[in-house]
Amino acid sequence: MANFPDLPPRVGSMGQPVPGFDVSVVDEEGSVQPAGEVGHIAVRTDPARPWPPGLFRGYEQPGGGLDTSAFKHGWYYTGDLATRDPDGYLWFVGRADDLITSSGYRISPFEVESALIEHPAVQESAAIGVPDATRGELVKAYVILAPGFQPSDELAAELQTFCKAQTAPYKYPRLVEFCRALPKTISGKIRRVELREQSG
Questions:
Q1: pLDDT tens figures, 35-50
Q2: How far apart are CA 166 and CA 177, in angstroms?
Q3: What residues does each domain of the chain span?
Q4: What are the DSSP E strand ranges found in the chain?
Q5: What's the chain's Rg over C-alpha atoms?
Q6: pLDDT digits over 156-180, tens only?
Q7: Is 193 helix (H, G, I), strand (E, B) or coil?
């Protein structure tokens, strides 16, 4: 995706697909999703078409061979989720393996984090899903507080109420844990898998 000189940028959008590549938002069966629906960002690899230039054929495995599970239904599934607006701009939702499913709702941790960071007490946050017998998963937020704020049950409740007002109420974190640091990769991305392991 990119914003070309003659393409007006939309703040927060990933832009539109690069010419020459058929990129869309599809469901698990490879059907293109209507505008506004969350789906997988996918690159078409339909054998009837020329293979997209620069696109690899699979992930090399340690023991040899290629893992081609990301290629299905004539598409390469990138692992990212997004929505597409009526004009074709893509809007990032999150990584497919980070998506939280609670009470039948699909919740992007990015949405929860974006809501929490608007609160003056929050310096940084990370959201994950933790197992729950009733809802499937609960949204849990790890929060690093800004200077001058102290952890408390009252502040946790305030952040939950604030998050409800910033986004859909069902997306608020039912669990809030204050912390001093978040596990990250060398490039600075939050290691949600490590947070999930910590949560058991």
A1: 988 899 999 998 777 7
A2: 19
A3: 23-96, 99-198
A4: 23-26, 39-44, 59-60, 66-67, 71-72, 75-84, 90-95, 100-102, 105-107, 122-132, 136-145, 175-178
A5: 19
A6: 999 999 999 999 889 999 999 999 9
A7: helix
Single-letter amino acid, residue 105: Y
CATH superfamily of 23-96: Luciferase; Domain 3 (2.30.38.10)
Residue among 188, 113, 189, 181 nearest 198 (CA): 181
- Amino acid at residue number 199: S
Task: Quote the CA–CA distance of 169 and 173 in Å, as a whole number.
Answer: 10
Mutual angle of helices 153-166 and 109-116, in 10-degree steps: 110
Work out the mean pLDDT of the chain and round it to a whole number.
89
Per CATH, the architecture of 99-198 is what?
A: 2-Layer Sandwich (3.30)
- Any residues with CB less than 8 A from the CB of 200 and at least 6 apart, and which? 130
Q: What is the pLDDT of residue 200?
A: 64
CA distance 43 to 23: 5
What residues pair up with 125 in beta bridges, in sequence order? 143
Q: What is the chain's length?
A: 200
